[in-house]
Structure formats: structure tokens, C-alpha cells
Predict the structure.
Amino acid sequence: MCIFCDIINGKAKSYKIYENKSTLAFLDIYPISYGHILVIPKKHYENIYSMDNEILTEVIKTVKTVTELLKEKLGINDVNIINSNGRIANQTVFHYHMHVIPRRENDNLDFIDEWWVNKYIKINDTNFNEIMNKLKN
Ligand code: AMP
Ligand code: ZN
């Protein structure tokens, strides 16, 4: 049982914005800004690790469509696109989804902005090389 699968099969209510063969875009029920949208694959995948590459491409294309709708219909030119994978990363619904969060001047979504500002960890050249060598192919 998955709440997003229930939305897809019509058992649970949702506010659909856009859909195609493999993806669905609908309003987040606890929006953090006006027009906060979720984009999901119609097939159940838990998160990025199990996600099919082709479906992932379809999802990001639908995200782009949604940003265009937000621009055309709501005049939104700024968005954050967020995707959390796994409990520690604060994923709460374990059906892959991307958040499209419209941003407006003085919208008080400081927690998103602060995420990036002055939050970097102290790291030196040795550390950078160590990480790079571990990760690169
Ligand atoms: P995450 O923390 O990235 O897993 O986000 C899950 C999101 O799903 C949250 O922003 C919830 O508000 C949203 N959500 C949960 N249940 C529903 C629902 N029935 N309809 C729409 N959005 C939902
Ligand atoms: Zn599901």
C-alpha cells in the first residue's frame, strides 16, 4: 500500500495538474508555497536507487513541463526542484517524487536558502583528492 499509488489508481483524492502515459503531476497536500507540485512516475519505485533510467527521464521532462505551466499561468520564474531519497534524507513517502517549489521575492522559505549558505564543511586539498579518488571511475 502506497498513498501515491492510491492517487494513481484513483483510490485517493488528488489535485492533478498534468499527466501523461508514465508520469503524474499533482498539488502537494501540505504545500510550502502557493503552487507546490509533486511529480511522480505512475509505476511504483521507492527512490533514486531503484528508479528506472528511462522513467527518470520522463519524470524530469514532466518537471520541466510543470515549470513551464507555473511560468505561463502563475508568472513564476524561480523554482527549487527537490528530491529526497531515504529516511535520513527526510523522504517520508517511499514512492519516487520530485518537488517543484515556486519561489517568490520575500517568500520566507529561508530554510531552503540557508541550506546552501555558509553551511559548507571544512575540507582541505587532501580531503578533496581523497574523495575524488574514491568516487571517480
Ligand atoms: P518527502 O518528504 O520528500 O517524502 O515528501 C512527501 C510529500 O508528499 C510531502 O511534501 C507531503 O506533503 C506530500 N504528501 C503526502 N501525502 C500526500 C497526498 N495524499 N497528496 C498530496 N501530497 C501528499
Ligand atoms: Zn507507490
